[in-house]
Write a structure and sequence with these properties.
The chain has 320 residues and is an all-alpha fold. The chain folds into two domains: 71 residues, no CATH class; 223 residues, MetI-like (MetI-like fold). 25% of the residues are buried.
């Protein structure tokens, strides 16, 4: 297991380096954005670009990019947005919003999805199973931003239960305040629908297969009731696949919140990423690309390793 983890980590850094190299080269091939005339001194901007190596070959710029990160942990400053402010500081200020929105959506989605999946598996091929399965297919097929528009229209505009956008930090007082959490509910709901459907589908499929196993019949013949056999054996074996899926679902929701944050005006890293692409702010784009890429690569390692801890019979990379 140790050798397997070390191998996966090394491959992760190699993959990250390749992706960063491709993104850096491709984004640098784009023309530099024009200097805005919003009270900014063109000469100062040109001097800053020269200091950052914008007038040097791409390979030299890439070397300086890595040098600043490794030596000084310097991800640069904003050029087109958050002028002259440190990229890393801005990311750390906005990261809690993104984490909270995704965390709340997962907290809602896990119990509801598991309960619906378990109920559908126990009522397999009955009308309850057909209703849940049909609803699951519909919710999985619809993108999260469609739910965002529906939630905005019905819950925010028609019923007036929530504001169209979350309150500012100055009005809410704290990111953990009740007013801020209440304002995040529309975005959380928009992200939760797809996750609930995903959990329900996987739980139903895994539990249905486990319930037809021979050992379940053996457990019943030994005197266990149906409820005892399901709770002690069926659910335990089904969780071997379901629990790693919960980790992967959190990562997918984190990536899917890019559009949701923009729609609901959540000042998280997702909306910051979209804005950096629109205005071509190289430093923010590269830092956020590394952030999302690293999350995706780490999730793959965590999911694979979790199988070995959930089921001791599984040993990654072992040889007979």
């Amino acid at each position: 297991m140790t050798k397997y983890v070390i191998k996966r980590v090394l491959l992760m850094f190699l993959t990250l380096f390749i992706i960063m190299t491709m993104c850096f080269v491709l984004v640098k091939l784009l023309p530099l954005p024009l200097i805005k005339s919003m009270g900014r001194d063109a000469n100062l901007v040109e001097l800053r670009r020269a200091k950052m190596g914008y007038n040097k070959p791409i390979l030299v710029q890439y070397f300086l990019f890595w040098k600043n990160i490794i030596v000084d942990w310097d991800w640069g400053v904003g050029e087109q947005m958050y002028d002259s402010l440190e990229v890393w500081d801005i990311m750390m200020q906005k990261l809690p919003y993104t984490v909270l929105v995704n965390l709340y959506s997962i907290i809602i989605a896990i119990p509801l999805g598991l309960l619906l999946g378990i109920f559908a598996a126990l009522k397999k091929n009955k009308w309850q199973d057909h209703v849940i399965s049909t609803a699951v297919m519909i919710f999985i097929s619809v993108p999260s931003y469609v739910y965002a528009f529906l939630v905005q229209y019905f819950l925010c505009f028609k019923l007036g239960w929530f504001e169209l956008q979350i309150p500012s930090l100055g009005d809410a007082g704290s990111i953990f305040s009740g007013k801020m959490i209440l304002g995040m509910i529309p975005a959380v709901l928009s992200l939760s629908f797809g996750s609930i459907a995903g959990f329900a589908r996987y739980t139903r499929a895994e539990l249905s297969e486990v319930l037809t196993g021979d050992y379940m019949l053996l457990a019943r013949t030994k005197g266990l009731t149906k409820g005892q056999a399901i709770s002690r054996h069926a659910l335990r074996n089904a969780m071997v696949v379901i629990l790693p899926m919960i980790i992967s679902e959190f990562i997918s929701v984190l990536g899917g919140s890019l559009i949701i944050e923009k729609i609901f005006g959540i000042p998280g890293v997702g909306s910051l990423y979209v804005q950096s692409i629109q205005v071509r702010d190289y430093n923010f784009f590269m830092a956020l690309t590394v952030f999302y890429t690293l999350i995706g690569l780490l999730s793959g390692i965590v999911i694979d390793i979790s199988y070995g801890f959930i089921d001791p019979r599984i040993r990654m990379g072992s040889k007979k």
